[in-house]
Design goal:
7 strands; two-stranded antiparallel sheet; about 100 residues; 5-stranded antiparallel beta sheet; alpha+beta
Length: about 100
């Protein structure tokens, strides 16, 4: 079992297996056990900052006008599709086209 500090990874730019940029690592989903947490998936977005800022500053009517297109939905990458051997430079083990949207 490998331990990685999440603060090293969050916000990191993520590339796919072919070197194409996907976005930034915004969230890590995990199942919590009694003595440990197991990562289940990673959420990668290219609009993460925009979404956070708009939530704080824009009214609901303006936010709805900035609605996401399907192509801008975040990626949900399964734990076994991510290479975190270098936590500051995570990358997927599959091409961007094979990743599923959240």
């Amino acid at each position: 079992m490998r331990r990685v500090e999440l603060r090293e990874m969050l916000g990191s730019k993520v590339f796919d297996s072919e070197g194409k940029p996907i976005g930034h690592l915004e969230e890590i989903e995990a199942d919590r056990g009694d003595d440990y947490c197991v990562v289940t998936s990673y959420i990668i977005e290219h609009r993460g900052l925009l979404d956070r800022v708009s939530t704080w500053t824009l009214s609901a009517s303006l936010q709805s006008r900035l609605a996401r297109r399907a192509s801008s939905q975040p990626y949900r990458v399964a734990w076994d599709q991510m290479d975190i051997s270098d936590p500051r430079h995570p990358r997927t083990l599959v091409p961007k086209e094979l990743l599923r949207r959240a």
